[in-house]
Design brief:
The structure holds two protein chains of two kinds. Chain A is an all-alpha fold. Chain A contains four helices and no strands. By secondary structure, chain B is α+β, with helices and mostly antiparallel strands. Classes of the chains: A mainly alpha, B alpha+beta.
Chain lengths: 145, 145
């Protein structure tokens, strides 16, 4: 049981880094595509990382909530990502001005990052499930002998 | 490894003794296999008590403080609690996958990831069970992952 708990904790840490690093990569790449010509300051890089890290932490903490419905779960993730980007990124860190065009751009970047992160997390899990399925097939082969 | 099998008239209860210097994985699995067969499981259906072989069990499920034994197409009630079964079957081909369910990994057909680090397990009889996030590390550990 103790082993399972520590593995559960390791899984949370691994999820945190997957979400934070993947979203940070996507955001930096999109930022460079959109505003790369104007340059990007080290301070801005750290601010963007802070937003991604907060999103990672919030997603990991709320993933512990016992929500059974996948649609509701996606809705919760969506909501917390947007709240973090607009309240923390836009409101506290003042990463972007609150005007129509900018809000639309940030919204687009956030949606893109969200889906890339979801795809990365699912790809991770898919790899793990493939490994389990392979072991199941091996076990059955051995049992049939 | 040497195997001695002897038939002795009037010996009484069958005895299996394992002598070893180092307890390796192979030996552990042989011991747990023997322990699994030494464990008698009785199920009740329509007032009739029946000895059930663990090899026929697909999964155990607990509902309203009652434990049920699910076979390929039959369901029996069991007098043991889920935690007692979990203790008895530790080391065997059974693993807890949710608060209310213990599955026989030899009856698994495949697994696939769902959202929020949950998996869906498909059994040989087509039934589908959910592997909850909390029990996923233990489930993966059973496959050496």
């Amino acid at each position: 049981m103790k082993g399972a708990v520590s593995m559960d904790f390791r899984k949370l840490i691994s999820d945190f880094f997957t979400v934070t690093c993947t979203s940070f990569t996507v955001i930096i790449l999109l930022y460079c595509v959109l505003w790369g010509d104007d340059g990007i300051s080290p301070r801005r890089v750290f601010e963007l990382f802070a937003v991604c890290a907060v999103i990672g932490a919030v997603v990991v903490v709320t993933s512990l909530m016992p929500v059974q419905s996948d649609i509701l779960r996606m809705g919760i993730y969506f909501a917390e990502v947007f709240v973090t980007v607009f309240l923390f990124g836009g409101g506290i860190l003042r990463l972007f001005p609150f005007n129509g065009k900018m809000l639309l751009t940030v919204l687009g970047m956030t949606v893109a990052a969200y889906f890339v992160v979801m795809a990365a997390v699912m790809a991770n899990e898919k790899m793990c499930s493939n490994e389990i399925n392979q072991k199941i097939a091996e076990m059955k082969k051995k049992a049939d002998k | 490894m040497k195997l001695f099998v002897k038939q002795l008239d009037g010996f009484g209860e069958t005895e299996i003794s394992v002598k070893y210097e180092i307890l390796d994985d192979r030996l552990e699995s042989i011991i747990s296999y023997i322990q699994q067969h030494d464990f008698s499981l009785y199920g009740v259906k329509d007032g009739e008590k029946k000895l059930i072989s663990l090899d026929d069990v697909f999964y155990f499920d607990s509902t309203d403080e009652r434990t049920f034994i699910y076979l390929a197409s039959d369901v029996y009630e069991c007098s043991l609690k889920l935690y007692e079964l979990e203790q008895q079957l530790a080391g065997a081909n059974f693993v807890r996958i949710s608060k209310s369910c213990i599955v026989n990994i030899m009856k698994l057909d495949s697994v696939r990831p769902l959202l929020n680090s949950r998996y869906e397990a498909k059994l040989e009889n087509g039934e589908k069970l959910i592997i909850s996030r909390h029990y996923l590390p233990g489930f993966k550990q059973k496959f050496g992952i």
